[in-house]
């Protein structure tokens, strides 16, 4: 290793992690109980969930506040920065694998499970004995048990959303370039535009969901097509929401004059996250909508 | 030769010269709740893992007590199912994995000359969410309808259509365990990649560090898939989706594919660090360098790579196209090659070595022999046509307990005895440690070896009652089980005695041990290697 050794900063004790642990506990118990109590018209579960989420937000603000303060007072070394970058890349890799599970389910259902139910390969008897009326098609709009739904086309809203997200990746990249070149006004403008595009995406996504539920009968429980459609786009939408919040926080920090051309890990991480969410959408657009 | 205490003084002096000290070690409960110190967090992980090992072990005792005789004696079948399920979940996620993470926390920074883990606060978070996750899981046992009773593999539709209402809590507790593992693994990778001492090149890394690096990669790759599959179980059960229901176009077999895509790398997550431990201990007590260091690294990486393309050997009887059966059979058998390389290297390391048989070495040797038995029965199970006979019998139970108990757990004991002097600063009581080893060794074989025959004779697993002809062997197995359970209490005696006092340990209490962790005094100071050490 050639680089000069720098002293690695080991933070003193911190109260935030244990607060975060309590928050996750409340969220898990709250979410679990809320799900159980769903059919009873609510209960204490949702309040536990809310309390946990609130505590988690407080923890994140406090913890990130500490880290930002440490960074701004110059405690961090280049080695520390590398730790953060590597940590963020591995976190994104774990997110990729999370989406891979749902894409895997989509491919399995589409390539294997549904054709087999229709009698493909050596499954003639499966077809004859289970649902002889069923014929295998994708998108699966007529379920084996007789349920009906409609498939979401890729024209219109999904296409607009694809364009919006693609542009937002470009604008964020331009913001990053401006930051590295020290053009603060351009940075602010490009970042602002990215946030607007992110919010526009989310708005159109909600629009699409309303359309699916109200007019198309395409719901979360509408067979494997509806399942994969809503879980994939839904988890993606949650990631866009989180990404937008991250960008808004970054925007606030830019306005306060944080980040320099060569020291801006948080900006970098937020930008990586956004590009990752964008790539996931492209896969979604191709495999869920178009093909 | 310098005496033990002199040796320790020299190490302490060198340590003081190279490190400026904050002699700041917080006290009381807050020390443990708020800690960012890798040694504290390692200790917490290890204590937690052992506690969970006893809890999960108590459940195994319930299982063995019920199976002592045919017929239903002690518990009703639903409770029996909860015991087998939660026993498995606790041993996998609560005992073996946290124990390895604890060892990683304690040892990796000291082995690579780092001041701490790379992300110390996240390290604290990774640990402290675990007790909460297990509180939820154990709490669900007391809910109306009982806890999870679908087996640790939670196959759909057992976990969806036919599961109790506590399944929602099971799902979220697994989510938290996953988050904990992922954060722990990120920390390990970043520490190893970024915080090595400047001269510590890749091929100088101790094998424990190498194996953990690869394990951490596996964890990050597959824990999110587990999160995905429990989420699908949640939506199938509560939100009307049909991922695992053919009526809506899904497929229960798909559950098994996604689960085992996680599950198979997971079993290597539970054994690769063992390989690292044994590769440290055998050279130390054979007083010879490890035979074939580079091949060990490549073998570990190959095993990890192969682990992603063998998952469906868990499902040969579930239904798969013929090509799938053959593909997964051959890939699985291929794993025997790198594993064979490892066993060969351990044996070759001992060849003409100046061997002594201290307790860590005893456990390591038992590991090599007994893990190999587990490996061979795995090879038998890999053969598809034969697996049709063995599937879901006690043969499978025997196989994975040989790999996990006499494999993973024995290696953890070996590690604990090997590094206990470094952790506590005292030598442990040799007599009681040897008692622990010999009692465990004998009882574990009485416990698990006859299970092979039960399985071959056709006794199914996860059943609270059985046909009369299995009665004798089951009694032997149960007696072995109680004896093994009791033997583990000896470990508590040894550790508590060593923690409270005893003969002072030298900086390097084992003559043949190699590595940076032996250059610091025993017990290891609260902060080590604030400036990185020189590496030979």
From TrEMBL, chain A:
EC number: 7.1.1.9
Pfam families tied to this protein: COX3 (PF00510)
Keyword Membrane set for record: yes
InterPro entries in UniProt: Cyt_c/ubiquinol_Oxase_su3 (IPR024791), Cyt_c_oxase_su3_dom (IPR033945), Cyt_c_oxidase-like_su3 (IPR000298), Cyt_c_oxidase_su3-like_sf (IPR035973), Cyt_c_oxidase_su3_a-hlx (IPR013833)
Membrane topology category: Multi-pass membrane protein
Residue span(s) of domain Heme-copper oxidase subunit III family profile: 4-291
Domain of life where this protein originates: Bacteria
Record-stated family: Belongs to the cytochrome c oxidase subunit 3 family.
PANTHER family for this protein: CYTOCHROME C OXIDASE SUBUNIT 3 (PTHR11403:SF7), CYTOCHROME C OXIDASE SUBUNIT III (PTHR11403)
The protein, known as: cytochrome-c oxidase
Source species taxonomy: Bacteria, Pseudomonadati, Pseudomonadota, Gammaproteobacteria, Alteromonadales
TrEMBL record, chain B:
Transmembrane region(s): 44-65, 85-106, 127-150, 170-195, 207-234, 267-286, 293-314, 326-347, 359-383, 395-420, 432-456, 476-496
Bias-annotated ranges (Polar residues): 1-11
UniProt keywords, alphabetically: Cell membrane, Copper, Electron transport, Heme, Iron, Membrane, Metal-binding, Respiratory chain, Translocase, Transmembrane, Transmembrane helix, Transport
Location within or outside the cell: Cell membrane; Membrane
Membrane topology: Multi-pass membrane protein
Pathway it works in: Energy metabolism; oxidative phosphorylation
A family per Pfam: COX1
InterPro entries: Cyt_c_oxase-like_su1_dom, Cyt_c_oxase-like_su1_sf, Cyt_C_Oxase_1, Cyt_c_Oxase_su1_BS, Cyt_c_oxase_su1_dom, Cyt_c_oxidase_su1_bac
SUPFAM superfamilies noted in UniProt: Cytochrome c oxidase subunit I-like
Domain Cytochrome oxidase subunit I profile: 32-536
Function: Cytochrome c oxidase is the component of the respiratory chain that catalyzes the reduction of oxygen to water. Subunits 1-3 form the functional core of the enzyme complex. CO I is the catalytic subunit of the enzyme. Electrons originating in cytochrome c are transferred via the copper A center of subunit 2 and heme A of subunit 1 to the bimetallic center formed by heme A3 and copper B.
Family: Belongs to the heme-copper respiratory oxidase family.
Protein name: Cytochrome c oxidase subunit 1
The gene coding this protein: ctaD
């Amino acid at each position: 290793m050639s680089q000069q050794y720098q002293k690695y900063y080991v933070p003193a004790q911190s109260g935030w992690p244990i607060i975060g642990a309590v928050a996750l506990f409340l969220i898990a118990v709250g979410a679990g109980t809320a799900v159980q109590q769903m059919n009873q018209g609510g209960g204490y579960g949702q309040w536990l969930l809310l309390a946990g989420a609130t505590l988690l937000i407080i923890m994140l603000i406090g913890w990130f506040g500490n880290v930002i303060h440490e960074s701004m007072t110059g405690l961090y070394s280049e080695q520390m920065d590398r730790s953060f970058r590597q940590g963020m890349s591995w976190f994104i890799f774990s997110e990729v694998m999370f989406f891979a599970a749902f894409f895997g389910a989509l491919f399995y259902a589409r390539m294997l499970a549904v054709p087999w139910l229709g009698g493909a390969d050596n499954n003639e008897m499966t077809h004859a004995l289970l649902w002889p009326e069923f014929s295998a098609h994708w998108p699966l709009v007529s379920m084996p048990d007789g349920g009906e739904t409609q498939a979401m086309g890729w024209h219109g809203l999904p296409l607009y959303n694809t364009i919006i997200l693609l542009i937002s990746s470009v604008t964020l990249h331009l913001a990053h370039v401006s930051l590295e070149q020290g053009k603060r006004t351009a940075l602010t403008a490009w970042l602002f535009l990215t946030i607007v595009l992110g919010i526009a995406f989310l708005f159109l996504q909600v629009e699409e969901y309303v359309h699916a539920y109200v007019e198309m009968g395409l719901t979360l429980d509408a067979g494997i097509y509806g399942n994969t459609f809503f879980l994939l786009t839904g988890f993606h939408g949650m990631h866009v929401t989180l990404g937008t919040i991250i960008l808004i926080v970054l925007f606030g920090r830019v306005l306060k004059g944080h980040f320099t051309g060569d020291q801006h890990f948080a900006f970098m991480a937020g930008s990586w996250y956004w590009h990752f969410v964008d790539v996931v959408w492209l896969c979604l657009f191709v495999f869920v909508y178009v093909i | 030769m310098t005496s033990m205490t002199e040796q320790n003084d020299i190490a302490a002096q060198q340590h003081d010269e190279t490190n400026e000290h904050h002699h700041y070690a917080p006290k009381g409960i807050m020390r443990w709740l708020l800690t960012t110190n890798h040694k504290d967090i390692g200790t917490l992980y290890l204590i937690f893992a052992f506690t969970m090992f006893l809890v999960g072990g108590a459940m195994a005792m319930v299982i063995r007590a019920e199976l002592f005789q045919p017929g239903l004696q002690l518990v009703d079948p639903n409770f029996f199912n909860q015991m087998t399920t939660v026993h498995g979940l606790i041993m996998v996620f609560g005992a073996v994995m946290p124990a390895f993470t604890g060892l990683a926390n304690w040892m990796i920074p000291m082995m690579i000359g780092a001041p701490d883990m790379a992300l110390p606060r996240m390290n604290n978070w990774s640990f402290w969410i675990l007790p909460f996750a297990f509180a939820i899981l154990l709490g669900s046992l007391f809910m109306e309808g009982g806890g999870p009773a679908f087996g640790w593999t939670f196959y759909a539709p057992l976990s969806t259509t036919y599961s109790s209402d506590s399944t929602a809590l099971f799902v979220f507790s697994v989510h938290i365990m996953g988050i904990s593992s992922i954060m722990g693994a990120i920390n390990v990778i970043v520490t190893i990649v970024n915080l090595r001492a400047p001269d510590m090149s890749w091929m100088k890394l101790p094998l424990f560090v190498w194996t953990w690096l690869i394990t951490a990669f596996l964890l990050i790759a597959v824990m999110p898939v587990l999160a995905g599959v429990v989420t699908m179980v949640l939506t199938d059960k509560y939100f009307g989706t049909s991922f695992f229901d053919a009526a809506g176009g899904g497929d229960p077999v798909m559950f098994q594919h996604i689960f085992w895509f996680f599950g198979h790398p997971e079993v290597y997550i539970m054994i690769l660090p063992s390989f690292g431990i044994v590769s440290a201990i055998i050279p130390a007590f054979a007083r010879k360098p490890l035979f074939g260091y580079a091949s060990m690294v490549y073998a570990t990486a190959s095993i990890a790579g192969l682990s992603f393309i063998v998952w469906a050997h868990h499902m040969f009887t579930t239904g798969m196209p013929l090509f799938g059966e053959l593909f997964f059979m051959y890939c699985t058998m291929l794993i025997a090659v790198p594993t064979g390389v490892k066993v060969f290297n351990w044996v070759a390391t001992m060849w003409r070595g100046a061997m002594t048989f201290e307790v860590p070495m005893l456990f390591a040797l038992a590991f090599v022999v007994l893990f190999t038995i587990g490996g061979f029965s795995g090879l038998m199970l890999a053969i598809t046509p034969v697996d049709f006979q063995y599937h879901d019998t006690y043969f499978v139970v025997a196989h994975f307990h040989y790999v996990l108990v006499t494999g993973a757990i024995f290696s953890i004991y070996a590690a604990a005895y090997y590094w206990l002097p470094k952790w506590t600063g005292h030598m442990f009581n040799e007599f009681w440690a040897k008692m622990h080893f010999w009692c465990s060794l004998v009882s574990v074989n009485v416990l698990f070896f006859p299970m092979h025959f039960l399985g071959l004779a056709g006794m199914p697993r996860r059943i609270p009652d059985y046909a009369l002809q299995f009665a004798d062997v089951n009694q032997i197995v149960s007696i072995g089980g109680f004896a093994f359970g009791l033997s583990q209490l000896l470990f508590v005696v040894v550790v508590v005695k060593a923690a409270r006092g005893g003969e002072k340990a030298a900086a390097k209490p084992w003559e043949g041990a190699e590595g940076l962790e032996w250059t610091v005094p025993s017990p290891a100071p609260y902060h080590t290697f604030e400036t990185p050490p020189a590496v030979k």
